[in-house]
């Protein structure tokens, strides 16, 4: 498990810089009636209700969700954060009903960023179900690496 995240971390460092190019990934498809899951922005109050109530359980991370989660710690000014944002939106739709993808703005939620020791962004926290502890990865990981981590760490595929 740690080997996977170490590999993802190294891959993330490789792909974490924005080179100024933009890619239009939008395609014209007929509108679908189904509403696909989108990333969910969290503030401290939402985090305490949906993820972990660290005020009630200091020193213990007890996940409150009913599905595994991926939490993106980001900032609006961060180039790599902007680069990974559309990928996370795509993954939220692809894994609709299987996982939650949360986003926490480190500029607005400094207490949460400090709680997790966020020193560089984007930082991604993988929160599996059960007794396993969350695992952190840093950098704007490419979509295939994120899918592999979601499948292996969160969904145990």
Automatic annotation (TrEMBL):
CDD domains, sorted: TRX_family
NCBIfam families given in the database record: thioredoxin
SUPFAM superfamilies: Thioredoxin-like
Source taxon at top rank: Bacteria
Pfam (any one): Thioredoxin
Name under which the protein is recorded: Thioredoxin
Organism encoding this protein: Dysgonomonas termitidis
Thioredoxin domain segment(s): 25-155
